[in-house]
Specification:
Layout lengths: L6 E6 L2 E6 L6 E4 L2 H27 L11
Antiparallel strand pairs: 1-2, 2-3
Length: about 70
């Protein structure tokens, strides 16, 4: 099951800029809206994977993973 996130997008002159509302630091800028949405998807995926790896490293050993729904 895929998670859903909110992309905030805006055209600013010749550029499209966007942010993922739920994940600070995930933002992109592209020439078209379609390119922007694809860049946001890629950047979000990378950020989530990085955050996951960082959390696992911080926990070291003996940790458990629990799925949470909000």
């Amino acid at each position: 099951m895929a998670n859903t996130y909110t992309a905030i997008t805006k055209q600013d002159g010749d550029w499209w800029i966007g942010w993922i509302e739920e994940v600070p630091g995930v933002n992109c800028q592209e020439k078209t809206r379609e390119e922007l949405l694809e860049s946001l998807r890629i950047t979000l995926k990378e950020a989530l994977e990085f955050n996951r790896e960082e959390a696992i490293q911080a926990a070291a050993t003996g940790y458990t993973e629990v799925s949470l729904s909000v």
